[in-house]
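Progress narrative, work stream C.
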Amino acid sequence: MKRPLHRLCRHVAVLATALSVALTPVSAQSRSEKASLPVVRDAEIEALVADYARPILKAAGLSRSGIQIVLVNSPGFNAFVAGRRIFINTGAITATETPNQLIGIIAHEIGHLAGGHQQRLREQLERSQTIAIVAGLLGAGIAVAGASTGAGGAAQAGAGLMSGGSAAAQRSLLSYQRGEESAADRTALTYLDRTGQSGKGLLETFSTLDRNNLFAAARSNYLSSHPMPRDRIAALEAAARESQHFGRADPPALVERHNLARAKIAAYNGGMGDVRRLFARDPRGLPALYGDAIATQLAGSTASALQKIDALIAARPNNPWFHEMRGETLMAAGRASEAAAAYSRAVKLDGTGSGLLKAQVGQAIVSGGDRSQMPKAIELIRGGLQSDPANASAYRFLAMAYGQLGEVGQAELATAEGYWHGGNIRQAQIFATRAQQKLKRGSPSWLQAQDIIQTKPRS
């Protein structure tokens, strides 16, 4: 990966049990229970995926269950669930040519959540009472990932892990997992039908996987926790075609949003070359031009990037994400006050109420360095954090704003909050302790620092 996708990347722990629910074979990050994934935050892409998931979650009776969708900055085609989170690789977004294809993937993962598959797998693992089975599962994940990417060394490492476990127990457990995958496929079709959407995209996804021979080098179907793509197509096609919604096409406006998101990912991860390859069939379409503008900005050509972004805004004046990108370009050029105005326009046009976007306005004001504007910046960043408290980077700007006003205790508390939400509990506690020494004992801020101090770090 040539560059990070967007403003903020942090890491979250992923349990090895995520193996059981990946749509495609998990990649090398699943080699240990301590593996972590690069998580990316982007208001535009998050809003799009949330819109895809919302009706499916409602159909599954999970709309009030606090399900969170997390974007993983990885080019691999993958999606999986862990806890109350659905993880979607950015590679899965760029690889899906239609909204319906990605919606089918999301419906499959929601099927796992609704079916309680994770809990049942944990119970199955507990009953096995042997770490060899876990090692075998991890080995299978590595072996299949190696086969799909041509990484022979990874495949050999997987085979080595497999040799240490009980073959019979592994076959039993992997067979169990394939059953859960098939159940999630069928459930996905049900949810798609309930929401008036086609199951065609899900079939197209499996056809793509089959054509790409992702499973071709696996030594045995038992080495995969998933059914073979062609088997999944055979099992689903008749049911999918029975739906009255099978021939329904995605709305053109949604297709455009989907392709704009794909263009952004391509530009940030691969630059102009990836954008041109992705949109070779429509090099002058709006998504291709969007990706070109982003890649131009990343290449450091600010004036040219602004011209291209302004042309996009002229074509779609009410698209908030074009204004957001204008703000980012102006920030990169050191024009903070103009950037704040562009971000403010984006906030007004945004119908999702993105906390990320709201905080960006305050962050731009902080970057401007006008001390008299710091109270306003604090208010804006705090407002963004109310709806998105996990925005770790916003706390850094919040601390800077308090520092400009000489409120050192609040600055150190904001720094502690940022570390806490970023998962660095020990550093959070260090700054919370420092903050308490400067805050009034018993005050709300002092008590907030105390809560951080009393958090027990994970072993």
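Work stream C, second folded protein:
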Amino acid sequence: MATITPLITSSYDRASEIKAFDETKTGVQGLVDAAIQQIPRIFINPPEPIPKSTTSFDIPLIDLASTNRALIVESIRKASENLGFFQVVNHGIPICIMNETLRGVRRFYEQDVEVKKQFYTRDASKAFVYNSNFNLYSSPAANWRDTFFSFMAPSPPKPEDLPVVCRDIQIDYSSRVLKLGESLFGFISEALGLETHHLGDMECDKGLTFVAHIYPACPQPELTMGATKHTDIEFLTVLLQDDIGGLEVLHENQWIDVPPTPGALVINIGDLLQMISNDKLRSVEHRVVANEKGPRVSVACFFSTSLAPSTKVYGPIKELLSDDNPPGYRETTVQDFVEYSFSKGPDGVPRLHYLKI
């Protein structure tokens, strides 16, 4: 078992080490390329007190091509209320497109370092943002991953602002996920007992962020995390992951695996959807463990208008409320909630408490 003792020095200056790492503009992959054997201290995470489940747990797998719509809706309802996660197959996105999307992400990260550096930025207003750890300067420990992202809807970037190596597939895949989102929000609307187009009419499916992560092979995976535990801010997440695995969901105070399923996409409920459903649906904590294998590649598409200026106000859906089920949250715009979430330090308090009545 590795120990952190050799990494601790009396002269350790975390702020300087973070700044030095960021200024390389080469991310975690740069550390791996340098063949380091011990991870920098900024990546060391405190031990996780929550145990890993020792028994297998099946994440619900839902066939969207089923002719039994009521079964689809009921399966999504149960999964969204109890686990917050489910998988879908026959979702309308061909496996060849899914595979090419992952290849496009790898092509970006496998480019020459000097080419990638041109895209490295912490300015979230850019059409294409590449960096390591969006919260590098505020988090108590950095995650062992690099990321690029673009806001693909409602105002997509100009194609020429995206890297050539992944441009076409990023645009294609995002358009297909937007179409899938229409279907998913329709099923979820019905699962809530609403009309099929209710969440669509609320414009929950109008914003989309394409977020591509790479988790390089880690020499000391027991000391760090690919992604520390968190909930997703948005309404809904559609996750495409490769075959390496590492995603875990917190369920009944245990971490359970979400193993890759060929042809499947992983769907999870976000904070905003829990809020407008008045806690009917669950946004649950999840994480990605670091691994000696790698690199692991994944693409998370988040449904929300994120930081885009907005005046549209969201609160618990009135049709779901009653004397016995009063609103538990105050109203907010997506922009306000996202800005709060990005500025909030990791204090252990769930983001939704900000909106609690």
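DSSP finds nine helices and 14 strands in the chain. No further action is required on this item.
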